[in-house]
């Protein structure tokens, strides 16, 4: 990672700052219910490019954004590099529906749609500073960290709506027809309806970065608070607060387990649905985000320009 301090870029979503998810991821694998084991015998490290940030699975292979290389790489379950493809400037968030791959180009204010063989199918305008990207309900949802908005696009890139949220939105999650947005600089999360109406904005910890919905509760990582909060999605009330490692950023679901990437500890905390930490997985330097696939957990390591499979 290029910066791991608490400076003006309160971490959260791209290496443009320091961390945040994207999910996060964002997604986002954070929305999937795939289960992978924690068998260390299959652990590998793969060099992916300059500044690996976002990670997503197309159902078979893993895709990683290299923020400082302006590329996306496609990696086989074995760790073999299958392709490297040019996209826009400072690609951060990434998501796949199994038929195509969508990439948020933070410095270009665009998103790029790729085929599974890496061909560019289209590049479409988003808001200012697209950071996280999520596929939901046949639409493409983008959190724009510099514009303090969320953009909804059709699968063909047509603009369907732009919604104001809090300061520096960096991560997204879906709960039924509602959309949850992490506002990194406001220390809050916003719940939006399917039409973009604000249903509530709720306080969380310091430097919220990642978010996931497990079917019952909303989970939010708080980078500077070194914890994860479990929220009631009905009213945003904090149900539990769990201490994890240093700099929790990306978050994902592995079956009923909650995976939390600890950017400052070079690790991933594994939590039960009740919030108990029962395992810690070591990964590369300054890990950022995590995706869960049938063949393992994949973590982007921004400081070692690698991806860890665990």
List the helices and strands and how they pair.
Layout: E1 44-47, E2 52-57, E3 62-66, E4 71-75, E5 81-86, E6 91-96, E7 100-105, E8 110-115, E9 120-125, E10 130-136, E11 139-144, E12 149-153, E13 159-164, E14 169-175, E15 178-183, E16 188-192, E17 198-203, E18 208-213, E19 218-222, E20 227-231, E21 238-243, E22 248-254, E23 257-262, E24 267-271, E25 277-282, E26 287-293, E27 296-301, E28 306-309
Antiparallel strand pairs: 1-28, 2-3, 3-4, 4-5, 6-7, 7-8, 8-9, 10-11, 11-12, 12-13, 14-15, 15-16, 16-17, 18-19, 19-20, 20-21, 22-23, 23-24, 24-25, 26-27, 27-28
Features:
310 residues, mainly beta, Methylamine Dehydrogenase, Chain H, 4-stranded antiparallel β-sheet, 28 strands, 52% strand, globular, disordered N terminus
Can you give a write-up of this model?
- With 310 residues, the chain is mostly beta strands.
- It has a single domain (29-309), classed as YVTN repeat-like/Quinoprotein amine dehydrogenase (Methylamine Dehydrogenase, Chain H).
- The chain is 0% helix and 52% strand.
- The strands form seven sheets. It has a four-stranded antiparallel beta sheet with strand order 1-28-27-26, with no helix packed on it.
- It is globular.
- The model is unreliable at 1-32 (pLDDT under 50).
